Amino acid sequence: xxxxxxxxxxxxxxxxxxxxxxxxxxxxxxxxxxxxxxxxxxxxxxxxxxxxxxxxxxxxxxxxxxxxxxxxxxxxxxxxxxxxxxxxxxxxxxxxxxxxxxxxxxxxxxxxxxxxxxxxxxxxxxxxxxxxxxxxxxxxxxxxxxxxxxxxxxxxxxxxxxxxxxxxxxxxxxxxxxxxxxxxxxxxxxxxxxxxxxxxxxxxxxxxxxxxxxxxxxxxxxxxxxxxxxxxxxxxxxxxxxxxxxxxxxxxxxxxxxxxxxxxxxxxxxxxxxxxxxxxxxxxxxxxxxxxxxxxxxxxxxxxxxxxxxxxxxxxxxxxxxxxxxxxxxxxxxxxxxxxxxxxxxxxxxxxxxxxxxxxxxxxxxxxxxxxxxxxxxxxxxxxxxxxxxxxxxxxx
Length: 397
Ligand code: OGA
Ligand code: ZN
Ligand code: ZN
Prior knowledge:
Blueprint: E1 12-15, E2 18-21, E3 26-31, E4 35-40, E5 45-49, H1 50-55, E6 83-88, E7 94-98, E8 104-107, H2 109-115, H3 119-125, H4 134-140, E9 143-145, H5 146-151, H6 153-166, E10 168-172, H7 180-185, E11 200-202, E12 218-221, E13 233-241, E14 244-245, E15 248-252, H8 253-263, H9 265-273, E16 276-282, E17 285-291, E18 294-296, E19 302-305, H10 322-336, E20 342-345, E21 352-356, E22 360-364, E23 367-368, E24 374-381, H11 383-396
Parallel strand pairs: 9-10
Antiparallel strand pairs: 1-2, 3-4, 4-5, 6-7, 7-8, 10-21, 11-24, 12-22, 13-21, 13-24, 14-23, 15-20, 15-22, 16-17, 18-19
Helix pairs in contact: 6-11, 8-9, 8-10, 9-10
The chain binds N-oxalylglycine (OGA) and zinc ion (2 copies).
N-oxalylglycine (OGA) binds next to strand 22 and strand 24.
């Protein structure tokens, strides 16, 4: 079939605020029993099921133009729905007329490519964290300037993408007035409030309700493993650090998990399958959650680390799992103590470290207040806010 070339065709179409850019246009479409096959003008092919296409019709009857939410419900057509006709129109979009309801759907090339669900397309879209050990992060630590992050949206986007990839970043020359950490966090979105407050002050306090509020060494940990959803990003802004000691240590928990997966499969199994118990009790709260140290998704990818020795409750797993989990847990702690994995940095006043609390473990050495004070201010922002802000910035920039 000869495709008429429309010179006015736009290579970028906006659907639901998102521009779907394309350099590829369909050359031909052919209909099979359950699918249509699209051949693109670079020779690639994509396959889409009729039922999937009908489900994803973007017309104003199927998707509300007001809310951008789906109105159509897939149970209102038979699973066996088919095209009576499929063609490429003058704007080089794919058109389908349906056998069931005579509905006509129009699909934009960029949208189809962005949502193609072939194995290779899905693999390409999968998030791949850039994991690091000590020497990697020494040379590649993402570093940003406070003023740039606050005032420049391009810098903001680049900082957030680095944070998503590396799970860590350092912001320098941050104003040391209290509450400035909120200004940076709110460049992303809402702060996640917890029982420790909207912002928390990390300094030695009388009647401390957390190990963090003493002068003690903290072992490598994630914050709030006692919650079903651990906070995503953690911000720690150094206002004063005149004490001796108190150096920060961070490790990429994903790197350690990968190491265990490679070298100690039995420990990996225990750490991914058997939960630890985490407790945090205070006068007015009593949080508990059971979860594995290493969480994985249905594809087996490592998605989350959950670990704070000082917040553990007694193990409550099947007797035959106990020895395996203790062995795995010992190994995990030993690896967090291994300097090959550690990024060591002494925070100075005006520095703000931001990291993925569900991936990067953090700790500090004990400190001594004889020489001066140590005061950090922190807060959390959930991961959904990070990825949402990245998408919104990417639409515009
Ligand atoms: C915390 C914490 C680290 C530090 O407050 O959760 O880990 O450097 N603080 O004091
Ligand atoms: Zn429709
Ligand atoms: Zn902490």
